[in-house]
Amino acid sequence: MSADDMRVRMAQFSSEMQNIAPMQQFAKYIELYARTEIGQSLIDVELNTLTGRKSLAEVCKGRWVLIDFWATWCEPCLHEMPSLQQAYEKYAIRGFEICAISLDMDPERWRSYVESNNLLWTNAIDLPANGETSVAEIYGLQSIPANFLISPQGEIVAKNLYGEDLLHELSHHMGK
């Protein structure tokens, strides 16, 4: 469903119903979701990468980037790693980048996985400091794996591309 579809559904409830806490939370989610729909601009955040702090806009500037949310404990995420590696090997030379943002709570487990699996793209971990909002929350995530394909102009052009769908979308935008 699009954010507009969700807003229409929400409006079908009485104002009393819309004012209860779970419905208010859902209304907030709709607004978060709207910010990450196809056609929206990249939401810039500060990332904790293997090499230090870096802005997401800096990673994405002027190239195709797949922002991939994952974790070492997420089996479906790990199942996607070969597809990500294949896409990176094929398109990195043409300016494609992956920005993998891990939701791991153990930085050493994350770092060990990245290094032992030779993940050469930008790797970050989503460990917000006290009082900060997590990157996953800013992007309105409800589950992982989740990803966003960003154009060189900083626009979200696709979401949740896996396996052959990712390769097909990249070939469409970057050539075979």
Write structural notes for this entry.
The chain is built from 8 helices and 7 strands, in the order H-H-H-E-E-H-E-H-E-H-E-H-E-E-H. The protein has 176 residues and is of the alpha/beta class. It has a 7-stranded mixed β-sheet with strand order 2-1-5-4-3-6-7. A hairpin with a 5-residue loop joins strand 6 and strand 7. It starts with a helix and ends with a helix.
Q: In what order do the strands lie side by side in the largest sheet?
A: 2-1-5-4-3-6-7
Compute the CA-based radius of gyration.
Answer: 17 Å
Distance between the termini: 31 Å
Biggest sheet features: 7 strands, mixed
Helix count equals: 8
Number of strands: 7
What structural class do you assign from the helix and strand content?
Answer: alpha/beta
Mean pLDDT value: 91
Please state the overall shape, judged from the principal axes of the Cα atoms.
globular
Task: Summarize the model shown.
With 176 residues, the chain is an alpha/beta fold. 42% of the residues lie in helices and 19% in strands. The protein has a seven-stranded mixed β-sheet with strand order 2-1-5-4-3-6-7.
